[in-house]
Amino acid sequence: MAVNAESRDYILELCEPFAQVMAKSMFGGCGLYLGGIFFAILTGDTIFLKADDETRDDFIKTNLPVFTYTAQGKPRSLSFYAAPEQASEEPGKKIMTSSLITTRAENSDGARMGKHSLITARHRTSVSLQNAFWKALGEIAARQGVSRNRLIGIIDSRRNGNLSSAIHLYVLDELRRQSASV
């Protein structure tokens, strides 16, 4: 269903007090993003807000419909729930505010996830890490006099399991060693 431009503009205006929200075309409607984090889908006149562990119960208690679409002839759903018709009034305002606050927290520099493509000695790959871990890994590599890719290659050659998890553990171990020597 096509996006109603008036509804899109209204939702963007409603979000203004919290942060600059961007609208991008998707699913025949548009996705709403706060600092690159996808938090809502607008189709026609309906806005669907992203639910997480903290907000899902609020959506379920109000019997709000889940966003569904059809892919390969089968109905699919995402963890996005329709906002109450009066999103600018209670309880809609509470749910909208909660969704935006959660998105803003996810978007903080250290917590925000980044996907990084690289080549290790073993293969071409990509890792998803929070920015704080990516930055710390770069600092550790610099202190050791190697490139970040070279350090990831070393971690990759010693790992058992997921590369992202191995990097997280390596960074934590290095930070522990560093704080113990101070």
Outline:
It is built from six helices and eight strands, in the order αββββαββαββααα. It is of the alpha+beta class.
How would you explain this protein's 3D organization?
The protein is an alpha+beta fold and 182 residues long. Helix content is 41%, strand content 29%. The chain contains six helices and eight strands. It has helices spanning 5-15, 56-61, 92-106, 131-144, 148-158, 163-180; strands at 21-26, 29-34, 37-43, 46-50, 66-71, 74-82, 113-119, 124-130. The strands form two sheets. It has a six-stranded antiparallel sheet with strand order 1-2-3-4-6-5. Strands 7-8 form a two-stranded antiparallel ribbon. Helix 4 (131-144) packs across helix 6 (163-180). The longest helix has 18 residues, at 163-180. The protein is elongated and about 55 Å long. It starts with a helix and ends with a helix. The relative contact order is 0.10. The model is unreliable at 86-95 (pLDDT under 50).
